[in-house]
Structures are given as structure tokens and as C-alpha cells.
Amino acid sequence: MDCLFCKIIDREIPADIVFEDDEVLAFNDINPQAPTHLVIVPKRHIATLNDIEEGDLALVGRLPYTAARLAREKGFAEDGYRVVMNCNEQGGQTVYHIHMHLMGGRRFTWPAG
Hints:
By secondary structure, the protein is of the alpha+beta class. The protein is built from 2 helices and 5 strands. The protein has one domain: 2-Layer Sandwich (HIT family, subunit A).
């Protein structure tokens, strides 16, 4: 498999890892859009949100749980933060392994910006 995030999980490609447990890995985004910009990925490969099956629900639920935990640890949970998941090309997905972006440490506006 030629998946960038799987290679990070397998330590074939280096990343600045900030959190890891048995099911999830989080690392600093290489192109941050906020003072804190983390990428949270399940360790099991699921290509897109469209590929999530019922048996994946507990694993996928760990992504927002981990985001909230990291936001608290980083000190911006109470002020607020943004989480984003993209799906397929028109949705902005560039790595086909589901992942959640956690961004915090600044004010966000809507539409995204």
C-alpha cells in the first residue's frame, strides 16, 4: 500500500508525533493553518468517509474524542477550536486515509478562513 499516513504509522516516514495509543496517532501538520494544527488518524486504513462501515464506528469515534482530549491538553478547548474531515477530491481530501484536522490557538471565521 502506498499510503502516506500508513507509512507514518509504520514509522517509514518521520512525523512529529504528539499522541499515540493502540488505535489512533496524532501528529503536527506539515502545512499548519493555525498555531496548533494536528492530524489525527486511525491506525487501521480506511480510505474515505464513504468507506466507513458499521464495524468501524468505535474506531472512527476515537477521532473526535482524541481531538477534544488534545485541545484540552493544548489549552484551547474552552476558547474553541476547529475540526475538519474532508472526503474525496471535491471535498479537499488529498491523502486517502481518513483523518481529522484539529486546529486551535486562533479565532476562526465562517466560511472557513
